[in-house]
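Q: What changes when 0O2 is included in the input?
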Amino acid sequence: HTIEQLKHIRHNVTRFMMMYEFALKELETKIEILNDEFLALHEYNPIEHTKSRVKSPESLMKKLQRKGGAQSLDEIRETIRDIAGLRITCSFTEDIYWVCDMLKNQTDINVIEIKDYIKEPKPNGYRSLHMIIQVPVFMSDRQESVYVEVQIRTIAMDFWASLEHKIFYKYEGSVPTQLITELKDAADSATALDRKMEKLRHEIESIKLAEHEHEEYEFID
Ligand code: 0O2
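A: The predicted holo structure follows.
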């Protein structure tokens, strides 16, 4: 390649990666609006926190190799749909489906795929709701539909997944059987905790409702 050609490639790659940063910025604002609105109306935060990342070039190259490579940036874009990732952590499992529905309802968002690893956890115990969506990004000379992978989980699911991820990498994929069993056991405990917390939440809500009805009754008297 000549210097000019290399400059051109670099320019295109920079623009390509920037597109994912923009898509994440847009999506994060959308999530913030939903959360703030919900907080104002219900005095409650369905989202604990969010974390976004653009895949590192090393990790992108590895995944591309696994998928058989690509000839152009357009091909990379279609093959690797998690270059931009947003992880949303909620307190309760119910909130996960609320966030998912809210994203589905946004008319400028295209939902491409949903994988529900909560209803059907992975054999190792991994739970999370994954969505592949397309977000429109408006730039000076064009509009792009950008793929983003959204992972929505509870705090317990996130705690488990981050530990499992570390262990998986430490053992480079070949985790000892004993650890696999213990991890599965921990995943079951995380599921039980999520159920327990949701049950408590419902109990607290019904107490609040009863108090509210009682106050109204006194007011009418
Ligand atoms: P990283 O480093 O988190 O980005 P794909 O490989 O994406 O084409 P797949 O495997 O069907 O197809 O995608 P899936 O199941 O939606 O999972 C993609 C991402 O979910 C992973 O990204 C992880 O972030 C997370 N994930 C999936 N399974 C597990 C699991 O068993 N344990 C943990 N800790 N995370 C999981 P990457 O690219 O693998 O890694």
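Observations recorded in class: The pocket of 0O2 is lined by residues 82, 115, 122, 124, 126, 130, 161, 164-165 (CB under 6 Å).
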